[in-house]
Specification:
Strand content: 25-35%
Radius of gyration: 29 Å
Largest sheet: 12 strands, antiparallel
Low-confidence stretches: 3-19, 213-227
Number of helices: 14
Structural class: alpha+beta
Helix content: 25-40%
Length: about 725
């Protein structure tokens, strides 16, 4: 009996090992298939073979420049991978050709002998190891063994304990490289360990704010260091790559999701496959973070980009690879993923309407099926912009100052970056300096904490108590979003500098078609140039109308602007040629040393000159107040009031409705015209646990987060609303009345 047990145990263990080995091979085969998917360019291969020098180098690469701006060595390792793909591809005329293998070994020999090390750690721990492990998985088994062994210390710089493998940062990329190397080496046990690390990287991380010491959590008696330091997916589904609170959803956060999805596909159906919980969390982040930060889920919102805006192609449309991978491994939110795939393939138009505020990143996005807009801000909790690492994006000083981008076609800003006036960013109020401060003066922590938004998921009101960290300038800015238009208000605009003017920019984008100016009931198409227009009622350009409730003097440019990519990106391969673009630029000049200046305008997207003549948006919008105490609007068609209270105060909405706010906050009130039926509130400063709102009439509503007190003397109901706290502080709560 004992012998039989031993035999059965032996066969069970053998079966398990065979099962595990089979799963390992499945994963390895999937990776190989993915690596070999790209079509080989035989013409490029011929050039690489002909130009390879006897010392194993290629012309055109400066092998002496290992700086952050240089390191063209990345081309060398990329060339090796291209040659390997040709050698292993049956469709290539270089399939199994000895001269190709010889070229690979010559080029690899040069690399391992010199071990080119870049000043930018990323190349050493991610870029170079990734190319070399790819080379090994494609052709490593056929290369000289001694040469292969010499690559291991270089590939080995990518490991889960490496300096760059910060949790929530680049750890998943580095772990992915290590996992692939484990497959190549046949280290099954380590592979299993690393795959589990990858899976567990999908998690929400706590972010308290940069003012608490770069992501340290404040506790009684001091600070407690958290292992993630706020890096990774935030509770609002935005993404922080570093500890500065800057929104990295469409840069590091995008590649983070792509890396995880890659391994979800590689391991699906095997013993290494990821849990349903982790896949659901990844899909939530993709749909509610990445896609809602993007124009129609298809193109990057320019306002959400950081230094990468200075790279060519930064706002090119996304492909369907990532959502297709996600839909292949899970049925969760299937229809939404399918719509994104169809939209990205131009097979369908978007249907999603949303208003989303990312309270951990101070970023707001708003979409209707035919237009998209966003607002970017920062506070005492967040820095304004990513540092200009590697000499990229070093004119981005004001790209967080209440930036308001608006899109109908999703390509209004494509190609604008090299010629842009970086002191006239859409939505911002900026003192016009003779030249921008240096790159070391770019990243700044916000100076005010009343920064945020209220949203019920469909509509949104945004508030920015702005104090410039660069200039002696303050302003209170607010945006109110509805179905067909949104309203932009500014007040208290003051600047102590007596020499330089202050301007608020409505938009700066690529010029397309006619610009129409309407004044005093008359409209006309204007000539190209730069001109001031007085008593303007409306400006129309490229499916957008800018409507002024009161006649306004505007500055308008519809002319050529010049610049270059090298002007904003000093990488060695950045194009230096001068570029010309036709640009539309619309702004308000508040003059020198403004004191308590203000503005108000309505943006009407997805319209045309004929619809503009009716001016229904102007008739639907009433600016109730635009003061340093309260900024508020009424939308007649929706019977909706949106308001920002910078201090406790009272707002008369109409003859029947008055709103009293007992503490600062942002409010959206839906009404039937005579009484409030639903209320949404938030506390941008995140100082209060409750918000007190008093409204006319006796309210009988009951909710878990609501206390109602009837004041018979005033005829008002006092609503004491519990506000979100902890990781959700700054988000909104909605109460139906």
């Amino acid at each position: 009996m004992k012998r039989l047990t031993v035999i059965l145990l032996f066969f069970c263990c053998a079966s398990f090992m065979a099962y595990a080995q089979n799963d390992i091979q499945i994963v390895k085969d999937r990776i190989y298939k993915e690596l070999m998917k790209s079509e080989v360019d035989d013409a490029q291969i011929e050039t690489l073979l002909q130009t390879l020098k006897d010392d194993g180098t290629w012309p055109g690469i400066d092998y002496s420049n290992v700086s952050r701006e240089g390191f063209e060595h990345r081309l060398h390792t990329a060339y090796l991978v291209s040659l390997a793909s040709a050698f292993k591809s049956k469709s290539s005329e270089y399939y199994k050709k000895k001269k190709v293998k010889a070229a690979i070994e010559l080029g690899l020999k040069n690399w391992v002998e010199h071990d080119y090390f870049c000043e930018n750690w990323w190349h050493n721990q991610i870029g170079t190891p990734n190319y070399l492990v790819t080379l090994m998985l494609i052709i490593g088994d056929e290369l000289d063994k001694e040469l292969v062994n010499k690559t291991q210390p270089i590939i080995g710089r990518a490991h889960i304990n490496a300096g760059g493998a910060r949790p929530g940062g680049d750890r998943i990329k580095i772990a992915g490289i290590q996992a692939k190397n484990c497959l190549f080496l046949g280290d099954d046990e380590k592979f299993d360990e690393v795959v589990r690390v990858i899976e567990n990287e999908i998690k929400y991380v706590e972010w308290i704010g940069a003012k608490y010491g770069y992501g340290f959590r404040k506790i009684v008696g001091g600070f407690e260091n958290r292992s993630y330091e706020g890096r990774g997916i935030q509770f609002d589904n935005s993404f922080h790559h570093r500890t500065d609170g800057v929104n990295n959803t469409l840069s590091y956060g995008l590649s983070y999701a792509a890396a995880f999805a890659e391994w979800a596909v590689y391991t699906t159906g095997t013993k290494f496959s990821f849990s349903e919980e982790k896949l659901d969390q990844l899909i939530d982040y993709f749909l509610d973070g990445i896609c809602k930060t993007s124009v129609f889920g298809k193109v990057a919102d320019v306002g959400a980009k950081n230094r990468s805006i200075s790279r060519e192609g930064a706002v090119n449309p996304y492909d369907d690879v990532l959502p297709s991978k996600l839909i292949s491994v899970s049925d969760y939110r299937h229809n939404e993923l399918q719509e994104i795939i169809d939209v990205r393939n131009n097979k369908a138009k978007p249907t999603l309407a949303h208003a989303t505020f990312y309270w951990d990143s101070e970023h707001f996005s708003f979409q209707r099926p035919d237009w998209f807009a966003s607002v970017r801000m920062y506070s005492t909790r967040n820095y304004n912009m990513e540092q200009p690492y590697n000499s990229e994006g070093f004119l981005n000083h004001h790209r967080g100052d209440g930036t308001n981008h608006i899109s109908v076609s999703a390509d209004e800003y494509k190609g604008l970056a090299p010629v842009m006036d970086y002191q006239k960013i859409p939505g911002t109020t900026v003192m016009q300096k003779e030249e921008m401060p240096g790159a070391n003066e770019l990243q700044k922590l916000g100076l005010t904490d009343f920064v945020g938004a209220a949203t019920d998921g469909k509509y949104g009101a945004v508030a920015f108590d702005f104090k410039s960290p660069h200039d002696p300038l303050i302003a209170r800015k607010a945006w109110f979003f509805f179905d067909k238009e949104y309203v932009c208000l500014g007040t208290g605009i003051s600047c102590s500098n007596t020499e330089l003017p202050v301007v608020t920019t409505l938009n700066q984008c690529i010029l397309r078609g006619d610009v129409i100016v309407a004044s005093g009931g008359k409209s006309s198409v204007i000539e190209k140039g730069e001109t001031e227009y007085e008593n303007v009622d409306l400006i129309y350009h490229d499916k957008l109308a800018y409507v002024f409730p009161e006649p306004t003097t505007v500055q308008l440019k519809n002319n050529i602007a010049k610049g270059s990519w090298y002007r904003i990106n000093r990488q060695t391969d950045s194009p230096k040629d001068e570029i010309e673009r036709d640009v539309f630029e619309l702004y308000l000049d508040h003059g020198k040393r403004p004191s308590e200046a203000n503005y108000q305008y309505i943006v009407v997207p997805a319209t045309n000159p004929e619809e503009v003549q009716n001016n229904t948006s102007k008739n639907n919008i009433t600016v109730l107040q635009n003061s340093p105490a309260v900024q508020a609007v009424w939308q007649k068609e929706l019977q909706m009031c949106q308001a920002v209270f910078y201090s406790e105060g009272t707002l008369d909405v109409n003859d029947d409705i008055t709103v009293e706010c007992g503490n600062p906050g942002v409010l959206i009130a839906k009404t039937d015209g005579t009484k409030i039926t639903e209320i949404t509130v938030s506390d941008p400063a995140r100082k209060n646990a409750k918000m007190l709102v008093s409204i006319p009439g006796k309210v009988n509503a009951k909710a878990e987060n609501l206390t109602v007190l009837w004041n018979e003397g005033t005829g008002m109901s006092d609503l004491l609303i519990d506000l979100p706290t902890g990781n959700y502080a700054g988000s909104s709560v909605t109460i139906k009345l």
